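Let's see one such:

===
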Amino acid sequence: MPNWLLPENVADVLPSEARKTEELRRALLDNFRRYGYELVSPPMMEYLESLMPVPDPDLDLRMLKMVDQLSGRTMGLRADMTTQVARIDAHLLNRASVTRLCYAGTVLHSRPSGFHATREPLQIGAELYGHAGLEADIEIQSLALQSLKLAGLTDVTLDLSHAGILHAIIDGDAVAVSHRAALVSLLRAKDLPGLRKLAGAFSAPVRDAVLALTSLNGDAGVLAEARAKLPAAPAIATALEELGALAGAAAGVNVNIDLADLSGYQYESGVIFALYVPGLPNALARGGRYDHVGEAFGRARAATGFSMDLREIARLLPSAAPASAIRAPWGQAPALLALIAELRAKGEIVIQSLPGHEHEQQEFDCDREIIADDGKFIIKPLH
């Protein structure tokens, strides 16, 4: 096997793509800060119990694991940063007030999450802790939509669902509760025959409500249909009201509500959303509420947030135009070095040409050059 061959769904990022991704990362983190989000940077690896505080078969399959040679305990390479940030909020910061945190870093997957997806996503996201009201969900949803807009993406579809609806339906039916993970998988796949077979052992009201979820998808009008088909439980009524409010708060985007779409991780407890654009089967962003994760770290805490893969977004954007730069001659003359330093301090890109390589451009557009003129160094336009 050639020593330059990389594993499947793992790739090098070359200069123009890396620059596009990095500029997007900086723009999004700066925007998060304008909303009041503080930057944190969790470690790449942790003990498995910390990375997966809630049992989650999907996350377990996606996570790369190893044995820590110092402690003998199983460690994981993070496949998702949300639980790490929840640990920081609950255990390290331990604030009583509302806390807004953001992050950006590489996560590793044992298998790709979708068609043509990388196994080394560059995850960026924001999390809001300490407020159980719908206002927090609206802020997070707005920030996610604003992030795609800032990236230059339009024609966005917001897909809404609610993890609490299934929980409310099966609550009280011990058999259904014991099969919750299987129910989630079958609902995601819209596997009606499989659902009918599994739900055959449930009580009739629970069976009928679970099967009804597969047909409850469409625009905001589907919420009225859901009220008619689902049990009149207070938790279900509240969940449908929340979905209606979030759909109404999403101005300027397409909204789809799919009560069977429980894509994501098992730690989610309330509203779930995903953002899509035409021509891409994978969601560009996923988010939602996960109020119970903090319990594993010693403090229950209301929590909602979202994350996205910067590399996936960057691939959708047009190639960046070559950066404007100034070509400078090689030399150690104090006047030349002083001019170069002054220009760089002002934000200009100045490339000193090594001898014999004066006309090599790489990804930069050298539209000016520094030349010696009558004992002085001046900048001359090239175009």
